[in-house]
Structures are given as structure tokens and as C-alpha cells.
Specification:
The protein is of the alpha+beta class. It is built from ten helices and 14 strands. The radius of gyration is 19 Å and the shape is globular. It starts with 15 loop residues before the first strand and ends in a 13-residue tail after the last helix. Bound molecules: ligand MTE and molybdenum atom (MO). The ligand Nc1nc2c(c(=O)[nH]1)N[C@H]1C(S)=C(S)[C@@H](COP(=O)(O)O)O[C@H]1N2 binds next to loops.
Amino acid sequence: MLINIAKPSDLRESDVTPESVYLSRRRFMGGMAGLGAGLALSGRARANADYSDVPDGDAPAWLKAKLDASRRRAIVPADPEKDAIAPFDDASGYNNFYEFGTGKSDPARLAGDLETQPWSVVIDGEVNNGGRFDLEDLARPSRFEERIYRLRCVEAWSMVIPWLGIPLAEVIKRAEPTGKARYVRFKTLVDPEQMPGQRSSFSLIDWPYVEGLRLDEALHPLTLLALGMYGRELPNQNGAPLRLVVPWKYGFKSIKSIVHISLVEEQPINSWQRIAPEEYGFYANVNPQVDPPRWSQASERRLPNSLFSPNTIDTRMFNGYADEVAALYAGMDLREHF
Ligand SMILES: Nc1nc2c(c(=O)[nH]1)N[C@H]1C(S)=C(S)[C@@H](COP(=O)(O)O)O[C@H]1N2
Ligand SMILES: [Mo]
């Protein structure tokens, strides 16, 4: 099996900086804004970068310990001026999580009581070391990393979010894929009692929510299994206790509240592809040149924004991660494989 993995040192986002340096740099940038630089950014976006407004949740002790240990270091966005971190309230209040409704504020309103302890994940299919793993057994052996990523929704809004988690590659390697494994398929919890969106008879989605990656995409060092954000555990509306984050693809690939990971031979059919195959593909790589039939992907609204400051920016190829991931698609027609 040929797997092309970039060295972690290739990651531009991974300039790990001691938090003190990070904070003073933030303060410096904040001062710049006072002088009128970086008008596109709201003062709110800067002020929240030290996570001081993030409420402490009720994560289990082992997870709190992991999160605390990893948030002592911080990762500075490659371009803090352009990529200011969204305020926690925006990242946890404006969500897509159709299991809790289709409105952007539904998940924050309705996901609070989702029971995430205990949580286990089944890993099966083309693996020699599968099984059902308690979340702690799955995540605790790995060092948590903080990654500040742009999240670009196919609806043409985006946010910069600091995630905490583990490389998906580590979990997959421990499962020991067989030579037949070519894709990874993910499924979200199905529990209509807890997830009102799954009770609705109007739902577009045939539950569970399903996503998939090619194995080399899944093993790419940018691909993260997040258990936290903003230095704390994930809020339920953001996909607690475990969600995928694939920063160079449209947000719908970043499946939430994962309970099942399968290594498979065939390319999975993901939920949005099943609903509207002409609009949403399997690859879903962010691409300003490839538009779905009904709208343009050339630009995006970077949140938070306002009526007076829509904060519209040009969308970048692979969401700005082309240096890291373009090689995965060498020779592929990205218009055909959208
Ligand atoms: N299970 C599940 N995962 C999901 C979704 C969903 O509806 N259900 N929505 C996706 C979409 S369209 C986006 S843009 C991101 C949003 O993540 P966020 O709410 O943490 O910003 O989650 C993705 N993961
Ligand atoms: Mo999305």
C-alpha cells in the first residue's frame, strides 16, 4: 500500500509557540487594530483569543487533564492578521448539526443534554485490530495537539477555530488496516430520543449521518479527530465528544459525534452526496473554481461579520492548505471529482 504522508514539520500552522509569547503577540496585534490596521477584523475576534470567556464543562477527569496539558502551548495561525480566531460564542452558537435541527441556532439550543459519557467507538472492516473502544482508550494514548484551522462551509461562510485533538492517523494505524483498506467511513450516533432532528419526518438525511475519506486523506497529518476546542472539551453542538476536522474540505466532511469508523474497500456514499449528488461530491475539496450548479464558491463570509462589515474574502484553493495537500490529488480532474 502506497501512502504519502507529509512530515509534520511541513505544517505551516504548527509553529508551536509558548503561550506567553502567543499572548503577548496577540496583545500586540490588538494594539495594531486600535491604530486602524486590519479593519476587516472585529475587536471581539481579537479579544477572545485567550479563551477567557470559555465556560468550563463537565468533561471526565482524564479528558480535562489531556486538554489542560495541551492548552499550555498554543499554535499561532500562520497569518493572525487575516485569520483571527472566531469568538467562542460564534463558534458554539452558529452551527450545522442537523441531528438537532436545520437552523443555525438549533444545535446550541437543543444539544445540551446529549449524553456523551460513557462514549464508545466501533472500529471495524478491513482492520486486524478492530473492536469497540471506550473514548478514553481511543484517545488517551495520543498526545493532544492544538490546531488552528479555517472551517469553510459549503454555504460560503467560514470561521477560524482552535481545535484540540489527535491525528486521525494514529487511531487508524493502531487499528492496523489490511491491504484491502482503501477508504474510511464514519457514522454519527443515531438516537432519536436525544436528537430531535432524527425524529422529524421531514428530514432530508437518511440517518446516520455518514462521511468518508480516502485512506491517504485520512492519514494526512492535517486530518484531526477533535475532542476539544478553545482549550476545553467540545460543546455538544460542535460534535462532542469526538468529531472529525478536515480543514481543506467543505465543512460537511467534518462529521460530528462519531460512533463508528470502518475501513472499507469501496468509496463510501456520504450523506450530502446521497441527498444531492450534483451539488455535493465525495471529495468536497474547497475549490473557488468549481461551483455547485446553484451558487458560487469564489468568495466566502468570514465570521463574525455584520451588515456593515460583511467581511467577504476570496476563497482559496484547498481552503489555503494547498501546499500541504495538493499532492494528494496530483493528476486528478477536480471538476469531475468535486
Ligand atoms: N453528524 C453531523 N455532522 C456534521 C453536520 C451535521 O449536520 N451532522 N454538519 C456539517 C456541516 S455542514 C458543517 S459546516 C460542520 C459545522 O461544524 P461546526 O458547527 O462545529 O462549525 O459540521 C459538519 N458535521
Ligand atoms: Mo457546512
